[in-house]
Amino acid sequence: MTLKQIADRLALTRTERRVILFLTATMLAGTGIRLYRSAYPASPRFDYRAADSTFASLTAHIQNDGNEPSRASTHISGKLNLNTATKEELNALPGIGVVTAERILQLRDQLGKFSSLDELTHVKGITIKKIEKLRPLIIVE
Asked: Contacts by 67-72 with C-beta closer than 8 Å and gap 24+?
């Protein structure tokens, strides 16, 4: 049986045949795209947040004119000390905004100083998952 015979048997109008053809082509294109994406997965995206926070700390050090040692120097060596960090330095960390930075400073004032990074879970808005993302960037001394 040919397509014409099938269409005559179903008594489809010309418009109905076009709609069926369009839907079939769309379904085939979608299947092709899905197969292509499964065969060639997307490359992982680079997370620029860590690089941005390092840039912010280096910029703070340069703006300090190098005349006096900056607290950002802990960032230059690799990690930010949670017990001496300023609100601006905390805000430069990925996933930490102004409000969260203020909450961290309030908790630090209550505790005197942090003894471990896990104490950050007491700050509203900071989860264990976020602490694990920040662990390579911050230390407690």
From this structure: none
What lies within 8 Å, CB to CB, of 19 at 6+ separation is none
pTM of the model: 0.47
pLDDT one-digit tens code per residue, 53-78: 666 666 665 555 544 444 444 444 57
